[in-house]
Alpha/beta hydrolase fold protein
Amino acid sequence: MSAASHRSRTALVEMRGRVVAIGAVAAVTGACAPTAVAAAPFHAEVQHAEVRGERIAWYERGSGPPLLMAIGTGSTMSEWDPALLALLARDRRLIMFDYPGVGRSSSRRGGRTSFAGMADTTARLLRVLGVARADVLGWSMGGFVAQQLAIRHPRSVRRLVLAGTNPGGDRAVLGPPADQRIDSDPDPSDADVLRVLYPRTRAGQAEGRAFLARLERASDRGTIPDDFRVPATTVRRQVAAEHPWLRSNANARALRRLRLPLLVTGGREDTVTPPANARRIARLVPHARLALLPGAHAFLFGERVRFARLVQRFLR
Protein backbone atom coordinates (compact mmCIF):
# COMPACT_ATOMS: atom_id res chain seq x y z
CA MET A 1 0.00 0.00 0.00
CA SER A 2 1.01 3.60 -0.25
CA ALA A 3 2.97 5.21 2.52
CA ALA A 4 0.71 8.22 2.34
CA SER A 5 -2.38 6.65 3.89
CA HIS A 6 -3.13 6.78 7.57
CA ARG A 7 -5.52 4.61 9.51
CA SER A 8 -6.39 6.92 12.38
CA ARG A 9 -10.16 6.97 11.86
CA THR A 10 -11.18 3.77 13.64
CA ALA A 11 -8.87 4.36 16.58
CA LEU A 12 -10.07 7.92 16.91
CA VAL A 13 -13.67 6.71 17.10
CA GLU A 14 -12.74 4.48 19.99
CA MET A 15 -10.59 7.14 21.60
CA ARG A 16 -13.35 9.74 21.60
CA GLY A 17 -14.87 8.04 24.59
CA ARG A 18 -11.56 7.61 26.38
CA VAL A 19 -9.73 10.88 25.85
CA VAL A 20 -9.91 13.17 28.85
CA ALA A 21 -10.45 16.63 27.45
CA ILE A 22 -8.31 19.37 28.91
CA GLY A 23 -11.10 21.48 30.38
CA ALA A 24 -11.18 25.21 29.92
CA VAL A 25 -11.51 27.23 33.12
CA ALA A 26 -14.22 29.85 32.75
CA ALA A 27 -13.00 33.36 33.45
CA VAL A 28 -15.20 35.36 35.79
CA THR A 29 -15.17 39.05 34.98
CA GLY A 30 -15.82 41.86 37.44
CA ALA A 31 -19.18 43.56 37.56
CA CYS A 32 -17.71 46.81 36.25
CA ALA A 33 -15.75 45.24 33.41
CA PRO A 34 -16.79 46.38 29.93
CA THR A 35 -18.95 43.91 28.04
CA ALA A 36 -17.55 42.76 24.70
CA VAL A 37 -19.86 41.60 21.94
CA ALA A 38 -18.74 38.08 21.12
CA ALA A 39 -19.02 36.71 17.61
CA ALA A 40 -21.51 33.90 17.20
CA PRO A 41 -19.72 30.57 17.66
CA PHE A 42 -19.25 28.50 14.54
CA HIS A 43 -21.45 25.41 14.22
CA ALA A 44 -20.82 22.78 11.56
CA GLU A 45 -23.89 22.22 9.40
CA VAL A 46 -23.66 19.01 7.41
CA GLN A 47 -25.29 19.10 3.99
CA HIS A 48 -25.61 16.50 1.25
CA ALA A 49 -25.08 16.70 -2.50
CA GLU A 50 -26.31 14.15 -5.03
CA VAL A 51 -23.36 13.30 -7.25
CA ARG A 52 -24.11 10.64 -9.89
CA GLY A 53 -25.50 8.01 -7.60
CA GLU A 54 -23.42 9.05 -4.61
CA ARG A 55 -24.84 11.06 -1.72
CA ILE A 56 -21.86 13.12 -0.58
CA ALA A 57 -21.82 14.75 2.86
CA TRP A 58 -20.02 18.05 3.21
CA TYR A 59 -19.82 21.18 5.34
CA GLU A 60 -18.14 24.51 5.01
CA ARG A 61 -16.46 27.00 7.29
CA GLY A 62 -15.29 30.56 6.70
CA SER A 63 -15.76 32.87 3.75
CA GLY A 64 -13.63 33.89 0.82
CA PRO A 65 -12.17 31.94 -2.10
CA PRO A 66 -12.95 28.20 -1.82
CA LEU A 67 -10.36 25.78 -0.45
CA LEU A 68 -11.32 22.11 -0.81
CA MET A 69 -9.89 19.83 1.90
CA ALA A 70 -9.20 16.20 0.87
CA ILE A 71 -8.34 13.94 3.82
CA GLY A 72 -6.61 10.57 4.05
CA THR A 73 -7.51 6.89 4.01
CA GLY A 74 -10.19 5.69 6.38
CA SER A 75 -10.78 9.19 7.73
CA THR A 76 -13.85 11.41 7.76
CA MET A 77 -14.23 15.12 7.22
CA SER A 78 -14.37 15.51 11.02
CA GLU A 79 -10.76 14.49 11.50
CA TRP A 80 -9.08 17.67 10.35
CA ASP A 81 -7.56 19.43 13.33
CA PRO A 82 -10.17 22.02 14.41
CA ALA A 83 -7.37 24.41 15.37
CA LEU A 84 -5.93 24.27 11.84
CA LEU A 85 -9.37 24.79 10.30
CA ALA A 86 -9.91 27.87 12.46
CA LEU A 87 -6.68 29.38 11.12
CA LEU A 88 -7.36 28.59 7.46
CA ALA A 89 -10.98 29.76 7.65
CA ARG A 90 -9.93 33.31 8.50
CA ASP A 91 -9.75 34.19 4.81
CA ARG A 92 -11.05 31.09 3.01
CA ARG A 93 -14.26 29.21 2.46
CA LEU A 94 -13.18 25.74 3.55
CA ILE A 95 -15.08 22.81 2.03
CA MET A 96 -14.73 19.53 3.94
CA PHE A 97 -16.37 16.35 2.61
CA ASP A 98 -16.65 12.60 3.12
CA TYR A 99 -15.65 10.26 0.32
CA PRO A 100 -18.34 7.83 -0.92
CA GLY A 101 -19.06 5.19 1.70
CA VAL A 102 -17.28 7.19 4.40
CA GLY A 103 -18.87 8.86 7.42
CA ARG A 104 -22.14 10.50 6.42
CA SER A 105 -21.68 9.91 2.70
CA SER A 106 -23.43 6.95 1.14
CA SER A 107 -22.58 5.05 -1.99
CA ARG A 108 -24.86 3.01 -4.19
CA ARG A 109 -21.90 1.61 -6.04
CA GLY A 110 -19.93 -1.42 -4.97
CA GLY A 111 -16.77 -2.91 -6.31
CA ARG A 112 -13.30 -1.48 -6.53
CA THR A 113 -12.18 1.99 -5.57
CA SER A 114 -9.65 4.06 -7.51
CA PHE A 115 -8.13 7.45 -6.83
CA ALA A 116 -9.03 8.53 -10.36
CA GLY A 117 -12.66 7.68 -9.63
CA MET A 118 -12.54 9.50 -6.30
CA ALA A 119 -11.08 12.54 -8.07
CA ASP A 120 -13.87 12.45 -10.66
CA THR A 121 -16.49 12.34 -7.90
CA THR A 122 -14.77 15.26 -6.17
CA ALA A 123 -14.79 17.30 -9.38
CA ARG A 124 -18.51 16.62 -9.79
CA LEU A 125 -19.09 17.63 -6.18
CA LEU A 126 -17.49 21.01 -6.87
CA ARG A 127 -19.75 21.50 -9.88
CA VAL A 128 -22.86 20.57 -7.87
CA LEU A 129 -21.81 23.13 -5.24
CA GLY A 130 -21.47 25.77 -7.93
CA VAL A 131 -17.69 26.05 -7.51
CA ALA A 132 -16.15 26.51 -10.94
CA ARG A 133 -12.58 26.54 -9.64
CA ALA A 134 -11.11 25.90 -6.21
CA ASP A 135 -7.82 25.75 -4.42
CA VAL A 136 -7.24 22.20 -3.17
CA LEU A 137 -5.38 20.86 -0.13
CA GLY A 138 -4.77 17.12 -0.02
CA TRP A 139 -3.23 15.32 2.94
CA SER A 140 -1.99 11.72 2.92
CA MET A 141 -4.26 9.65 0.63
CA GLY A 142 -6.13 12.89 0.05
CA GLY A 143 -2.96 13.97 -1.72
CA PHE A 144 -3.45 11.13 -4.21
CA VAL A 145 -6.99 12.31 -4.85
CA ALA A 146 -5.83 15.92 -5.12
CA GLN A 147 -3.09 15.03 -7.62
CA GLN A 148 -5.56 13.11 -9.77
CA LEU A 149 -8.06 15.95 -9.51
CA ALA A 150 -5.48 18.44 -10.80
CA ILE A 151 -4.37 16.05 -13.56
CA ARG A 152 -7.81 14.92 -14.73
CA HIS A 153 -9.72 18.15 -14.10
CA PRO A 154 -7.17 20.98 -14.40
CA ARG A 155 -9.86 23.60 -14.98
CA SER A 156 -11.35 22.80 -11.56
CA VAL A 157 -8.13 23.52 -9.64
CA ARG A 158 -6.55 26.96 -9.26
CA ARG A 159 -3.70 26.15 -6.86
CA LEU A 160 -2.71 22.87 -5.24
CA VAL A 161 -1.27 22.15 -1.78
CA LEU A 162 0.00 18.65 -1.00
CA ALA A 163 0.86 17.45 2.51
CA GLY A 164 2.42 14.14 3.51
CA THR A 165 1.77 12.32 0.24
CA ASN A 166 3.70 10.58 -2.54
CA PRO A 167 3.77 10.60 -6.36
CA GLY A 168 3.09 6.89 -6.83
CA GLY A 169 4.99 4.27 -8.79
CA ASP A 170 8.69 3.72 -8.27
CA ARG A 171 9.00 7.39 -7.27
CA ALA A 172 7.22 6.66 -4.01
CA VAL A 173 9.38 6.19 -0.92
CA LEU A 174 7.80 3.90 1.66
CA GLY A 175 8.36 3.94 5.39
CA PRO A 176 9.40 1.01 7.61
CA PRO A 177 7.33 -2.19 7.24
CA ALA A 178 6.07 -1.94 10.82
CA ASP A 179 4.63 1.51 10.15
CA GLN A 180 3.16 0.30 6.87
CA ARG A 181 1.34 -2.46 8.74
CA ILE A 182 -0.11 0.07 11.17
CA ASP A 183 -1.02 2.29 8.26
CA SER A 184 -2.98 -0.49 6.54
CA ASP A 185 -4.72 -1.72 9.69
CA PRO A 186 -8.44 -0.78 9.69
CA ASP A 187 -8.53 -1.02 13.49
CA PRO A 188 -5.21 0.09 15.03
CA SER A 189 -4.58 0.64 18.70
CA ASP A 190 -4.53 4.12 20.19
CA ALA A 191 -0.81 3.85 20.83
CA ASP A 192 -0.12 2.84 17.22
CA VAL A 193 -2.13 5.77 15.86
CA LEU A 194 -0.10 8.25 17.89
CA ARG A 195 3.10 6.40 17.02
CA VAL A 196 2.72 6.98 13.28
CA LEU A 197 1.07 10.41 13.33
CA TYR A 198 3.31 12.21 15.84
CA PRO A 199 7.02 12.21 16.74
CA ARG A 200 8.02 9.38 19.07
CA THR A 201 9.12 11.70 21.82
CA ARG A 202 7.39 12.64 25.04
CA ALA A 203 6.52 16.06 23.62
CA GLY A 204 5.38 14.59 20.30
CA GLN A 205 3.08 12.05 21.90
CA ALA A 206 1.69 14.73 24.22
CA GLU A 207 0.86 16.82 21.15
CA GLY A 208 -0.94 13.82 19.70
CA ARG A 209 -3.06 13.43 22.80
CA ALA A 210 -3.82 17.16 22.71
CA PHE A 211 -5.02 16.77 19.11
CA LEU A 212 -7.40 14.00 20.16
CA ALA A 213 -8.67 16.20 22.98
CA ARG A 214 -9.32 19.01 20.47
CA LEU A 215 -11.36 16.62 18.34
CA GLU A 216 -13.35 15.58 21.40
CA ARG A 217 -14.12 19.15 22.44
CA ALA A 218 -14.93 20.29 18.91
CA SER A 219 -17.32 17.40 18.38
CA ASP A 220 -19.04 18.07 21.71
CA ARG A 221 -19.43 21.76 20.82
CA GLY A 222 -20.57 21.12 17.26
CA THR A 223 -17.56 22.85 15.71
CA ILE A 224 -16.98 19.67 13.71
CA PRO A 225 -19.64 17.08 12.84
CA ASP A 226 -20.00 14.04 15.07
CA ASP A 227 -18.90 11.98 12.11
CA PHE A 228 -16.34 9.26 12.81
CA ARG A 229 -17.77 6.15 11.19
CA VAL A 230 -16.09 4.32 8.32
CA PRO A 231 -16.98 0.70 7.46
CA ALA A 232 -14.03 -1.67 7.42
CA THR A 233 -14.98 -2.70 3.87
CA THR A 234 -14.56 0.90 2.70
CA VAL A 235 -11.15 1.16 4.36
CA ARG A 236 -10.05 -2.08 2.69
CA ARG A 237 -11.16 -0.80 -0.71
CA GLN A 238 -9.18 2.38 -0.22
CA VAL A 239 -6.14 0.37 0.83
CA ALA A 240 -6.56 -1.90 -2.21
CA ALA A 241 -6.57 1.18 -4.46
CA GLU A 242 -3.05 1.95 -3.29
CA HIS A 243 -1.60 -1.19 -4.91
CA PRO A 244 -2.09 -0.03 -8.52
CA TRP A 245 -1.02 3.45 -7.40
CA LEU A 246 2.37 2.04 -6.43
CA ARG A 247 2.69 -0.23 -9.45
CA SER A 248 2.17 2.46 -12.08
CA ASN A 249 4.27 5.51 -12.90
CA ALA A 250 1.37 7.15 -14.76
CA ASN A 251 0.67 9.70 -12.03
CA ALA A 252 4.33 10.71 -11.74
CA ARG A 253 4.56 11.15 -15.51
CA ALA A 254 1.41 13.26 -15.54
CA LEU A 255 2.78 15.49 -12.78
CA ARG A 256 5.49 16.66 -15.19
CA ARG A 257 2.75 18.17 -17.35
CA LEU A 258 1.07 20.13 -14.55
CA ARG A 259 1.14 23.85 -15.13
CA LEU A 260 -0.67 25.07 -12.04
CA PRO A 261 1.00 26.52 -8.92
CA LEU A 262 1.93 23.78 -6.44
CA LEU A 263 3.08 23.85 -2.81
CA VAL A 264 4.47 20.52 -1.58
CA THR A 265 4.87 20.05 2.17
CA GLY A 266 6.11 17.24 4.38
CA GLY A 267 7.13 16.36 7.91
CA ARG A 268 10.84 15.89 8.54
CA GLU A 269 10.14 13.00 10.93
CA ASP A 270 7.33 11.39 8.93
CA THR A 271 7.82 7.62 8.82
CA VAL A 272 4.52 6.94 7.05
CA THR A 273 5.38 9.18 4.10
CA PRO A 274 9.08 10.03 4.37
CA PRO A 275 9.96 13.61 3.36
CA ALA A 276 11.86 12.34 0.31
CA ASN A 277 8.43 12.03 -1.33
CA ALA A 278 7.82 15.76 -1.07
CA ARG A 279 11.22 16.45 -2.62
CA ARG A 280 10.50 14.07 -5.49
CA ILE A 281 7.10 15.62 -6.24
CA ALA A 282 8.66 19.09 -6.15
CA ARG A 283 11.26 18.00 -8.70
CA LEU A 284 8.60 16.54 -10.98
CA VAL A 285 6.32 19.59 -11.19
CA PRO A 286 7.70 22.69 -12.90
CA HIS A 287 8.15 25.64 -10.52
CA ALA A 288 6.76 23.75 -7.51
CA ARG A 289 7.49 25.13 -4.06
CA LEU A 290 8.78 22.85 -1.31
CA ALA A 291 8.48 23.26 2.47
CA LEU A 292 9.51 20.67 5.07
CA LEU A 293 8.36 21.28 8.64
CA PRO A 294 9.18 19.65 11.97
CA GLY A 295 6.93 16.75 12.86
CA ALA A 296 5.73 13.37 11.67
CA HIS A 297 2.75 12.45 9.47
CA ALA A 298 0.45 14.93 11.24
CA PHE A 299 3.02 17.73 10.98
CA LEU A 300 0.38 20.09 9.58
CA PHE A 301 -1.48 19.78 12.89
CA GLY A 302 1.52 19.96 15.19
CA GLU A 303 2.95 22.92 13.24
CA ARG A 304 -0.46 24.34 12.34
CA VAL A 305 0.45 28.01 12.75
CA ARG A 306 3.47 27.76 10.44
CA PHE A 307 1.61 25.50 8.04
CA ALA A 308 -1.40 27.83 7.85
CA ARG A 309 0.87 30.80 7.14
CA LEU A 310 2.60 28.90 4.35
CA VAL A 311 -0.72 27.96 2.79
CA GLN A 312 -2.23 31.44 3.15
CA ARG A 313 0.79 33.11 1.55
CA PHE A 314 0.86 30.59 -1.28
CA LEU A 315 -2.83 30.96 -2.07
CA ARG A 316 -2.84 34.75 -2.26
